[in-house]
Write a structure and sequence with these properties.
Distance between the termini of chain A: 41 Å
Structural class of chain A: mainly beta
Largest sheet of chain B: 7 strands, mixed
Shape of chain B: globular
Radius of gyration of chain A: 13 Å
Shape of chain A: globular
Distance between the termini of chain B: 36 Å
Strand content of chain B: over 45%
Helix content of chain A: under 10%
Order of helices and strands of chain B: EEEEEEEEEEE
Strand content of chain A: over 45%
Largest sheet of chain A: 6 strands, mixed
Structural class of chain B: mainly beta
Oligomer: heterodimer
Number of strands of chain A: 11
Order of helices and strands of chain A: EEEEEEEEEEE
Number of helices of chain B: 0
Number of helices of chain A: 0
Number of strands of chain B: 11
Chain lengths: ~110, ~120
């Protein structure tokens, strides 16, 4: 059974800092991995999707990496802004899309 | 496109009542998913459909839950009878494909259910 773990559970940083969110999964037989953002009271917005054959994906200030063999992914956020405050969820797509519990990020101005 | 549309956005109902949640997926998407989100258990996949056919309902918690997809543009998740422990946010999501083709999955805004 696939298990997805996200570390840290919560993170509070001052504006402008670069930060890394971590995701680990137990079964490396995956098709892809997605990072989502969830704002309070809202649905999930897909940020980045990395295919199992890829090592990383970039979108603006976001960069996600994938090391399938070790069961790890990281989401790097450069020059964080207060608007980045949200919950970030990692989801692994094998037979099912399995989500981690998320990292609650607060960027202080 | 308007995205995945869910209704109602919020519902408060009494224990024992029937609850019906509705979803309109993005046009052209052939996969539809129902998820439930709670503080205790996070996001859980309840059921998913491919071309209107239920493929995997192993996440449906018990017989009180049922889901249908009568056509490509509409799905329902029904709870009958509802119980307080069903209180959660129910998300509908859709995508073009699943698995190896790895297309992005799009979520609706969720239906916030409270059973008192």
């Amino acid at each position: 059974k696939q298990e997805v773990t996200q570390i840290p559970a919560a993170l509070s940083v001052p504006e402008g800092e670069n930060l890394v969110l971590n995701c680990s999964f137990t079964d490396s037989a995956i098709y892809n991995l997605q990072w989502f953002r969830q704002d309070p009271g809202k649905g999930l917005t897909s940020l980045l999707l990395i295919q199992s054959s890829q090592r990383e994906q970039t979108s603006g200030r976001l960069n996600a990496s994938l090391d399938k063999s070790s069961g790890r992914s990281t989401l790097y956020i450069a020059a964080s802004q207060p608007g980045d405050s949200a919950t970030y969820l990692c989801a692994v797509n094998g037979n099912k899309l399995v989500f981690g519990a998320g990292t609650i990020l607060r960027v202080k101005s | 496109d308007a995205g995945v549309i869910q209704s109602p956005r919020h519902e408060v109902t009494e224990m024992g009542q029937e609850v019906t949640l509705r979803c309109k997926p993005i046009s052209g998407h052939d996969y539809l998913f129902w998820y439930r989100q709670t503080m205790m258990r996070g996001l859980e996949l309840l059921i998913y459909f491919n071309n209107n056919v239920p493929i995997d309902d192993s996440g449906m918690p018990e017989d009180r839950f049922s889901a249908k997809m009568p056509n490509a543009s509409f799905s329902t998740l029904k709870i009958q009878p509802s119980e307080p422990r069903d209180s959660a946010v129910y998300f509908c999501a859709s995508s073009w494909a699943r698995g190896s083709s790895g297309n992005t999955i799009y979520f609706g805004e969720g239906s916030w259910l409270t059973v008192v």
